[in-house]
Amino acid sequence: MSTRRDYKTRPKSRRPVKRGAPPWLWMTTGLMAGLFAAMLMYLHRHGAPPALTVQQPPADAPTPRADTAPAVAESSEPRYDFYTLLPKREVEISSEDLEPAREREAKRLAAGPWLLQAGSFRQYSQADALRAQLAMSGLESSIDLTEGDNGVWHRVRLGPYTSKREVDRIRSKLARVQVRAIIIKASP
After folding, report:
1. pLDDT digits 0-9 by tens, 58-80
2. For residue 160, is the peptide bond before it cis, meaning its omega torsion is within 30 degrees of 0?
3. What is the pTM of this model?
4. Are 116 and 171 contacting, i.e. CB atoms less than 8 angstroms apart?
5. 113 touches 162 (CB < 8 A)
6. How many domains, the chain?
């Protein structure tokens, strides 16, 4: 014999959920408490701001004379000496110095074969890594070893190029792979 249960009349076992204060209330309370603590720390370190008070001169104090007032006003103005010093110190500048550096560089690089130098490194491995990066971008480069007063340098160079347009095209291609190159006039 089977016993049947009636689940419809069974009492609910769920108890009502007691909710506390909403989260925004807790967050606001914490923020206000933090700001209050920060204000107390600031006042403790820097002291309370001074109260604004206006002092009245005593009634029996003598009033200042009119002839002393302008002397005080003259001494409160700042004194500048450069108006007298600068005209005495003139510097002669030649017309070559006035010519902008870019124009001089443009004249120097006006014609002839050019090289692009993409980098200069003390370690060969760094120069080889840049050369490999350029090769992956489709650019052919070489590493030149130079010795100077300040040691050995490995220079990564591209070129020589005969047209300025080709130099600009390669330079923009280098800029796309975040490599800044300088233009060097190749020796003939």
Report:
1. 667 666 665 555 554 555 666 77
2. yes
3. 0.44
4. yes
5. yes
6. 1
